[in-house]
Structure formats: structure tokens, C-alpha cells
Amino acid sequence: MISWILVIIGEILIAVGAICDLIAAIGMNRFPNFFVRLHALTVGTIGGAFVPLIGVALLSLGAEFLGVYRFFMAGASIVSAVLLLFLAPVGSHAIARAAHRSKAATVHPKVVDHLEEDRERGVVV
Amino acid sequence: MEIEEHVMLFITFIAPVFIASIILYLIRALRGPTIPDMVIAVDAISFDIAVFLAVLAVYFKSPILISCVIVLMLWAYALDIYVAKYLESKDMGG
Amino acid sequence: MLYYLLMALSSLLSIPAIYLAVEERDLVKAVIFSAVQSTLYAFLYYLLMAPDIFLTYIPVGVGLYTALILILIKKTERYESD
Asked: Contact B36/A79, CB-based, under 8 Å?
């Protein structure tokens, strides 16, 4: 009974992650510029990769046809999920800062950009 | 229905969603107009393929394949840091 | 069945990345296309049940090769001339 509960919860989490991945992939193609596409990257990272990895860990704890090594599988999934939770926001912040400083990504429908004005006046380095 | 049959049927239904999102990310990675666009698309492809590898390790019933996920995640992060460092060093004139 | 379908799909999707990496004039973009190709080939090795080759192909293809070529581009010039 407990294995059925673990398997059902794991499958629900994997399904939620797959739907988030599809939404993020559509948004990555439809959004107008780089700084808006970062939002789609966040949906695809946390909703589309962290949640289904926890789901795989629960599913493999409940699936008894995998043998004794299913505990190794659950542990590796949780370790990689926690690593992803630390590393993916750091990477996206680093690439966003570099893109804004070096003007590699132009913002086409732009209303106001106070950081760029402050950088031109010399207030912020 | 047994647990094994149920899990196999579920993975057979969920795999085309992952494949479709990989193809859509790949379109943006190949025709992105600027370099940061392409880098974040490669990031998203790497994380998506990592989750797909973890699901396929359940499908193939060989749990030792799960150790590939950690490696793929760490090196996708390294690509971000390399390109960010290159863009900033060109800005500072180093 | 899913096995052969995934192998065919992964090797077909790497063809545009290889073509663009050869044709591209901007060398930084060519490096990123090469990283896409390395990721897809590593997925192919995973499907062939060779996780040890996967564990060495990802650091070499995505990590070391990209870092080396970016350092070389920084020392020389970025755009390839005719």
C-alpha cells in the first residue's frame, strides 16, 4: 500500500514537471527579448527540473521491481535536485549581469532603464 | 494492475512531452539572435535532458545509469560561467 | 521501440548543429553550436548503455573544449575573415 502511494505521488510530480517544461519551451520561442526569456528559463529550471527529480526519487523508492539499488537511485536524484536548486539561479544571474554590462543583448520594446542611465552618469560602476 | 506495468505505461505517455520540449528549446538555441539567448537555451536543454535521463533510468530498469545526471548538471553550469566571463572581460578591455 | 526512436531522433537533431558550427563566421556562436552537438552525442552514448563514456564525453565536450577555445578567441580575434 505504501509503495502505491509513493508511486502515485511521484507520477503526479513528474507530470507537473513535464507540463511546466512544455510551457517554458513555448515561452522561450514566443517572448520578445533576452531579459523576458529569463522568466521562461526560470519556469523550465525550477518547475521543469527540480520538481520531476523529486518525483523520480519518490517513484524509485516505491518501485520494488528495481531491486536493492533503488535506494541509490533515490539518493542520487535528491542530491542532483539540491545541486540544481543551488547552481541554476547563480548561472542565470551571471549571464544576465554580463549581458547587461557588455550590451550584448539589446532590449527592443523598452520603456525605461534606470540602471543604464545611472551607469552612464557614473553613479553605479 | 501491477506497479511495474503501471509505471511503464505512464513513462510511455510522458516521454513525448519531454521530446517536444527538447525540440522547441533546440529551435531557439539554433536561431537565437544574440549570444546570451543561445547560452540560456543550451542551459534549458541540458536540464531538460538531465530529467529525461532520470526518467529513462527507471524505464530501462538499470539504476546505475542515474549517476550521469549529476555530471550533466555541473558542466552545464560551467558553460554559463565561461561565456559570462568572456563577455565581461571584453567589456573591461582585459 | 522507444529506444530506437530516441536514437534516431537524437542523431537527426545533431545534424543542423554540426552544419551551423561549420558555416558560422562568429566563432563564439560556433563554440555554442559545438556544445549543443556534444550534449546530443552524449545522450546517444547514454542510449547505447555506455554511462562510462557519457561521464568522460560531457566534461571534455562541454567543459574543457569550450574553455580552451574561448581562451584562444580572447587572445586572438573573434570574427573569421574571408
From this structure: no
DSSP letter, residue C79: B
Domain spans of chain C? Answer: 2-75
**Domain range for A58:** 2-121
- Cβ atoms of C79 and C26 within 8 Å: the answer is yes
Please count the structural domains in chain B: 1
- Determine whether the interchain pair C46/B68 forms a contact, defined as Cβ–Cβ distance below 8 Å: yes
Which of A80, A90, A104 is facing B70, going by the closest CB pair?
Answer: A80
If one counts the domains in chain A, the total is 1
Q: Could you list the residue range(s) of the whole structural domain that residue B27 is in?
A: 3-92
| Nearest CB neighbour to B71, from listed C2, C58, C66 | C58
| Burial classification of residue A40, based on how many CB atoms lie within 10 Å of its CB (0-12 exposed, 13-18 middle, 19 or more buried) | buried
pLDDT in tens, A9-60: 999 999 999 999 999 999 999 998 888 999 999 999 999 899 999 999 999 9
Q: What are phi and psi of B66, to 5 degrees?
A: -70, -20
Q: Taking a C-beta distance cutoff of 8 angstroms, is the pair C70, B82 a contact? A: yes
